[in-house]
Amino acid sequence: MNSGSHNISPVLRGLATATCVVALLPIGMGSVVTTLKAGMAFADWPSSDGQNMFLYPWFSDFAVNTEKFVEHGHRLAGMLIGFVAILLAIAGHVSQVTWIRRWTSFILVAVIGQGLLGGARVLMSAQVLAMTHSITGALFFSTCVLFRFLLCDGWRCWLSRSETRLATTGAILAFMLPVVVVGQYALGGVLRHLHGMRTEHVIGAILTLSCCLASSLLLLGSSLRILRLAGVGTAAAIGLQFSLGIGSLVTRFGFKAIGYVAVSGSLEQSIICSLHTVAGMFLLATCCCCSVLVLRFHSHGLIASTRLSEQEPILGESVA
């Protein structure tokens, strides 16, 4: 994957960054749509109330119909990320690097697939498709972030530090992280869209918290700054997500111990539940980047189950 890294243009890097940023628009709007139960504000697609999506009087709904305003904003944001993905794919194909062409093509196909899935959800009025649309949205965002991460030259410099070793247990745990987070995200989708598996989601949250914190401790024990930063990022992401998860449960189901009664559609519920969904996507993206770092260790033969010498620190053991 290092081949051709010096041929990566600033334009490609800029578009990759823009893809990550712009992707937050439909993701954020989509989470609000789910929280407000506005997914069926329009019964048609790709038109909106029979009108062209571009010509629909969007702002006229701002004060009179919040559900339509949010849903149509979600649609427009989806079209915007599609446009940026097209530019990214063009820039990727101009590049002479094969893996970049494949990634940018995949991102474009994924955007199109997301749009079609969202449209099918409306036409079929299916909550299962709405849940699937949310999960694939998280995977799409993680793909965009991971691609931008791979375009950085700086993260590869640690490969020259062959004195650092990675404990096998640390490698396995890091590989498991994205799988655990995706599973927990799916359970959250069932709770948000199908109103089930609340207990399973809470148990999954504790499991995810444990795995993320354990991985963070292993990463923080590395002698490499990039891995220590990954450990800090993972700990911060799971801390934020877990806190928002508690807030989501309280604002949605209430908390009798303090006399708090949940009000459906309240401002605090809309904000916290939506942020919880978006933060989950950031957590997944962070875990994917951590796993890629571990994969690079593995591909260069730097994973060791035992210490090779007293001077060679192993990730997962304390470093003086």
Alpha-carbon distance between the termini?
33 Å
Q: Report the average pLDDT across residues.
A: 84
Number of self-contained structural domains: 2
Q: Work out the helicity level.
A: 55-70%
Largest sheet: 2 strands, parallel
3D structure, described in words:
With 320 residues, the chain is mainly alpha-helical. It folds into two domains: 152 residues, no CATH class; 160 residues. It is built from eight helices and two strands. Helix 4 crosses helix 8 and helix 5 packs antiparallel against helix 8. The radius of gyration is 21 Å and the shape is flat. The N terminus and C terminus are likely disordered.
Short description:
By secondary structure, this protein is mainly α.
Task: Please tag this protein with its features.
2 domains; two-stranded parallel ribbon; disordered C terminus; mainly alpha; disordered N terminus; 320 residues; 2 strands
Secondary structure blueprint with pairings:
Blueprint: H1 10-35, H2 66-94, H3 98-124, H4 127-150, E1 165-166, H5 168-194, H6 198-220, H7 225-253, H8 267-299, E2 314-315
Parallel strand pairs: 1-2
Helix pairs in contact: 1-2, 1-4, 1-8, 2-3, 3-4, 4-5, 4-8, 5-6, 5-8, 6-7, 7-8
